[in-house]
Amino acid sequence: MPTPLYDPFPKYLQIRDILLRRFAGLAEGTRLPTEADLSAEFMVSRVTIRNVLNTLAEEGVIARRPRLGTYLLKPPPPPLDDRLTGPIEDMTALGLPAWTQAIDHGFVPAAADVAAALGLAAAVEIYRVRRVRFLSGGPLLVLEAFFPEDIGHLLAGHRREGSLFVPILQELLGNDVREDYQQIDALTASAEMAQHLQIDPGAAVLCVKRLFVDGAGRAIAYFKTNFRADRYFYSIKLPKPAPGSGSRRQPPNGTNRPSPERF
C-alpha cells in the first residue's frame, strides 16, 4: 500500500472554515479551546491544529499568548451564502497551491445514473469533462462533469483549461444558476480511479455529487467529485433546535435511524 506523502491541507482548510463559523457567534475576548482539545475533536494531529491557529492569528482573528491561552481577537463576519461554493472554489479563493490536469473531454452516451440526474433519456449524447485536481504536490480528487448536449456545445466553445465550471455557466446563462442538491457516497476506487488518485484499487473514495439547475429548474450540470478519503473529509453545521422543540425528534413515517451517539 502506498505510504501517504501529503500534508492534510483539505482537512486544514475545513477545520479553519469550521472554526471561523464558530467564532462568528462569539464575543471578542472569548477564550478558545486548546490545541489538545481541538486535536481530539477533529481527530487530527496537534501540528495540523497549530497550523490552523497560527494562520488565524496571522489573519488577526485570534491572539495566542504563552501560558495564557488563545483568545478571540476579532470575531469574523457571519458566512455569506455559499451554495455555489465547494472545495475547488475554496482552494482557489484561499490561494492554496492547487492545479488541474485534464483527463479527457468530449461528447459521450450518458450512463443511466447521469441521464437520470440530468432528466434525460438513457444513452442520449452528453458532454463530459474529466480532470484530476492536485493540491500540495499530490492528487486530491477526480472531477467528472456532465452537461446536456446544448450546454456542452456552449462550454466547448469557451473551454479554458482548469477553469471552474459554475462561473462559466453563470457567464453564459446569466447569474440565475443554482445548486439543487448534493449527495455524498462512500465508494471504493476502480482501477482507473486509483491510477489517477495514486491509491490502491479498492481504496476508500468519498464521492460528492452536485446537481445545478437554471432559473427554469432545468438540470444543466451534474458533477461527481471523487476525493481521496485520506486527504479530505466533509462537514456541515447543523442548526440548533428551536426553543421548546426538545433535543430529540422522531424520524418520519416510523422509520428507525441509528443514534448518532453510536458513531
TrEMBL record:
Residues 9-75 form the HTH gntR-type domain. Residues 247-263 have a biased composition (Polar residues). Keywords: DNA-binding, Transcription, Transcription regulation. GO terms for molecular function: DNA binding; DNA-binding transcription factor activity. It comes from the Bacteria. Residues 240-263 are annotated as: Disordered. Signal peptide: none annotated. One of its GO terms (biological process) is negative regulation of DNA-templated transcription. InterPro entries: Bact_HTH_transcr_reg (IPR050679), Chorismate_lyase_/UTRA_dom_sf (IPR028978), Tscrpt_reg_HTH_GntR (IPR000524), UTRA (IPR011663), WH-like_DNA-bd_sf (IPR036388), WH_DNA-bd_sf (IPR036390). PANTHER family: MANNOSYL-D-GLYCERATE TRANSPORT/METABOLISM SYSTEM REPRESSOR MNGR-RELATED, MANNOSYL-D-GLYCERATE TRANSPORT_METABOLISM SYSTEM REPRESSOR MNGR-RELATED. This is GntR family transcriptional regulator.
